[in-house]
Amino acid sequence: MSRGTNLFIAFSISAVVWVITLFLSTGYVNEVAKSMPTYALILYFSYALFKVGGDLARLKDYPEEAESLQKEVQEAKRFYQQQGLKL
Pathway it belongs to (predicted)? Predict the structure, then answer.
């Protein structure tokens, strides 16, 4: 199955469980069930931020830029060592 199909199935099962829990529960469980979509959104956006941040930190999509950056770092180290700075 494709990634989209798996996501759709997981979302559908979660939605059905949430609706059943919302309508069949009482008291504290009902209050928790009402807030579950909010928690799901918070978790999703947290995951998205960490994923984007991790990709940026690794420069995963830009190997040429990563090499260029490493060369510039080496040049800067050599320059400052010639100026007498100990790194």
Answer: Protein modification; protein glycosylation
